[in-house]
Amino acid sequence: MKILNLYSGIGGNRKNWGNDHEITAIENNPEIAKIYQDFFPNDKMIVTDAHQYLLEHFKEYDFIWSSPPCPTHSRLKLLCINTGQNKLEYPDMRLYQEIIILQIFFKGKYVVENVIGYYEPLIIPKKVGRHYFWANFKIPFIKIPHPSLKTNDKSTIANWKKHTGLDIKNWHGYNKPHKEQLFKNCVDSGIGLHILNRALEIKEADKYGQAKIFE
Fold first, then answer.
1. What backbone phi and psi angles, to 5 degrees, belong to 8?
2. Which end is more exposed in the chain, N or C (fewer Cβ atoms within 10 Å of the end residue's Cβ)?
3. Contact 54/101 with Cβ under 8 angstroms?
4. DSSP H helical segments within 58-178, as ranges?
5. Among candidate residues 147, 143, 137, the one with its CA nearest the CA of residue 206
6. Residue 181: its pLDDT value, please?
7. pLDDT tens, residue by residue, 45-64
8. By CB neighbour count within 10 A (0-12 exposed, 13-18 middle, 19+ buried), where does 57 fall?
């Protein structure tokens, strides 16, 4: 299956997908892209703007995962605005632009992921853990444990490594990445596999006209 992994980060959602698929990852930060490529050397990595790439290439894939930037939507952002730590700014509506394009024009299976926002979502999502998911197939419930976020010390980084299944052995090989933020931006690898497997089930059922079984 041809998979497009947009806003790939270091690959938390992709961790358990294996190497049986043709995966293209899109990340606009070259240093983060380098970490992803070191983890997943078989994937095709393109350093570019994921939002524009989706618009121009979505027809080329069977399954699309998109995780657009979340800071302007998050409940933490609202807290920071209310306490004067951040200035007020518009939510980044590229999130909904991508959902609409995929809903209307994409013939394969897709999922768009973001954080639970501080406002009522404009398009109703599925809530899983600390995430919202918009998809054109049903995502069954899955319970995923969440790591401790109480401190910014080595123990917290260790918790995130365990949670994501990713462990960067040599941080000195990269240009001073913000370790905790890289891990916090990851979707749990268990959720990533759970959703991909569901998409594969639906795709297989579609072949035999049995998709309604899974809806």
1. -65, -25
2. C
3. yes
4. 75-82, 94-105, 154-164
5. 137
6. 75
7. 999 999 999 999 999 999 99
8. middle
Gyration radius from the chain CA atoms? 17
d(CA 59, CA 57): 6
Task: State the pLDDT at residue 73.
Answer: 85
Pairing type for strands 131-135 and 126-128 reads: antiparallel
Domain ranges within the chain, ordered by starting residue: 2-142+191-214
Q: Report, at the CATH architecture level, how domain 2-142+191-214 is classified.
A: 3-Layer(aba) Sandwich (3.40)
Count of alpha carbons within 13 angstroms of residue 195, beta-carbon side: 33
CA separation for the pair 16, 155 (Å, rounded): 24
Of 177 and 181, the structure prediction assigns the larger pLDDT to 181
